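User: Structure tokens for this complex, please. No commentary.
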Amino acid sequence: MAYETFKYDVLVIGSGGAGLRAAIEASAAGVTVGVVCRSLLGKAHTVMAEGGVAAALGNVDDRDGWKVHFTDTMRGGQYMNNWRMAEIHAKEAPDRVRELEAWGAVFDRTDDGRILQRNFGGHKYPRLAHVGDRTGLELIRTLQDHGIHQGIDVYQEYTIVSLLKKGDQVVGAFGYDREKGLFKIFQAKAVIIATGGMGRIYKISSNSWDCTGGGISIAYHAGAELIDMEFVQFHPTGMVWPPSVRGLLITEGVRGEGGVLRNKEGRRFMFDDIPDLYKAQTSTDEEEGWRYTQGDKNAKRPPELLTRDHVARCIRREIKAGRGSPHGGVFLDIAWIKEKIPNAPEHIKRKLPSMYHQFKELAGVDITKEPMEVGPTTHYIMGGVKVEADTQMTSVPGLFATGECAAGLHGANRLGGNSLSDLLVFGKRAGEYAAKYAKERGEDAVDENQVNEIAAWALAPFERGSGGENPFALQDDLQEMMQDLVGIVRNENDLITSIEKLKELESRSAHVGCTGNRGYNPGWHTAMELNHMLTVAKAIAISAKERKESRGGHFREDFPDKSNEFAKVNVTLKKDGEGKVEVRQVPKSEVREDLKQIIEEMK
Amino acid sequence: MAKVTFSIWRTNESGGQFQNYEAEISEGMVVLDAVHQIQAEQANDLAVRWNCKAGKCGSCSAEINGHPKLMCMTRLDDMNLDKAITIQPMKAFPVIRDLVTDVSRNYRIKKKIKKFKPRNPDASDGTWRMYQGDIDRVQEFRKCIECFLCQDVCHVIREHHLHEEFAGPRHMVYTAALEMHPLDVEDRRKELKTEGGIGFCNITKCCTNVCPENITITDNAIIPLKERVADRFYDPLMKLLSIFGKK
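Assistant:
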């Protein structure tokens, strides 16, 4: 069968911040670029990022610089980070943010007219450039509006099902357009995966529809190594009520602006447990904590601004101990700042406009008057496709990965704000090096047998029709299971059970059916997507079982402490010759001496 | 909880029709939840476009009981549930399937608008200085989530079908964000008058009323743009100056 085929030097799969930044860079290097958007352009999950983009511009506190940002990122990641990525990221983020301004972004300003920066968990100084609480929208729109004039071809509402290979080399991708359901072939000299995260394999998640882990899955099936898949970030503050919005994100910016966490007894429980790693820089005094949020350079930060993994676990502890709020969360209170500043309601609405609207419209709560109810929600995966720090190339020649689907920068836990800067810094690098790679390579035709095989697999659900399994029901079962067994607190028994259950789900997924025709058919799309969701779920469960310690986003109640042995390795997965998951513990590379010294000095 | 009837537009070979579905609803549910529930349990192939389900991406625009709205931000608690709730695709755009419309026209229009062109940097390190008071207005416009509900409700487009003649409210807001950007030095007034067809807007403010981001589209974007265009083309003094090649 011959399908419509498009040829590019560089194909970018994904059109969030990382994909668009990569496409812009590759195109600027003079190669032809195609971008596949699963949704409409500008709708990717980046749009939901709220708090800001971390970059040591030093506009608010001139003591900040790349070394501090680097150290904060490493400490936040519990030193599991790829140190070279953390170094590049800290050094290049300021330029990437300034560049956005040259492309039309309009960040909030300091009094002297520069880009304003705000406090965030785990960042020593005010570091997040932001636009109220809609920074992601500003970022993606700026890249979109700049990108459409760069001669990039954009394929909106196209989905990639699989990569195509010739020998070891990636030579393109197989996908379909959503509108008509027709198969499309993309032939490319280099392919960049920038498909974001996988939150939608969990029941309670802050992630949008796109985040099924599709890119991680197609890379894995093409032979790429995955690392750190056990490190999933559960954001401490998601909405808990009403049920239909459970999991929806509440920005850390609320705490950055002075919001506090309380249990039902009114106690600020975050003061009860401050980890050793952060004792030196965390306040034990409520008044001092408030002064910190208001820019007092001599004050230490309140414990509400500890890293996300820790805050999430403290919240869970309060809820489990029966000290939670009526709907099974805890209280996040920003309204209390009226005791401290005049015109507090106006101030809150200006600093946190979308939080105000979100609660007003979806929960009927006025956050300028009453506290919010919040609880942990699946937010981000630190792990993903293993890449070379400088180039973002994966272990498969010609295949690059960048943004959330790539691993390394964040280690065991990501700091808020480091995601948007990650997209910019490494999106650019992926684009640059993919273009370079493409220029040095000739063109390879795709293998027709591979294409036919994938096409037959993709159409199978129609053959099973209404007699097959309902794909949505299967997806629900997967989300429930992951939430229950591979969530915020894990243990060996649950993980073994989860791996068993995943096998059952996998065999059921071979029987999903769909009805109707190929045009814009969500039942069919879900049937195909299940394969990716199950692949990623399995990778997380297996990696979580392998890491017998607690670190960052990965918490094992049967191994509650950090282990020196596991500190030295990345759990690494690869598809072996028989299609099974090969699990290895791969030693991490030694941190470069000068960087080690920086970490030491800033302890 | 209550059983509610949803009357949802389904396309078929002969065009389409409303089809009734019953769904159990619970406290706090939004219209998109009901559509998802129906899709999962009764109609797997029901086409609906959505992404964030948080009012941030602007994908799930539709007409609910005849009103252009985001499905994810429309709570059922606020509606009369005794009657069937109708959900249909945006009327001003061609339907692809069921609730999904072809909004590609908007992307084509946007691409024609001259891009951002900043003045030279203010500081030697290549950065600019802008003050919060000078950017408040532009930030209001940049809240736009491109849901295209304003395009849908605009009678110039919806009733008079002047798709080619009038760029529509979204693109007026986009142009205003560029024109009023403190750093921008481009001039888009000629295109606003010609290709943009700004004269077609007779400021009925329907767009402002449906904007889920509460952008004051008519008063803050369109009217000031109309004034700029008038200054450029109809001010006698400016007209005289323009003969001598001034902007």
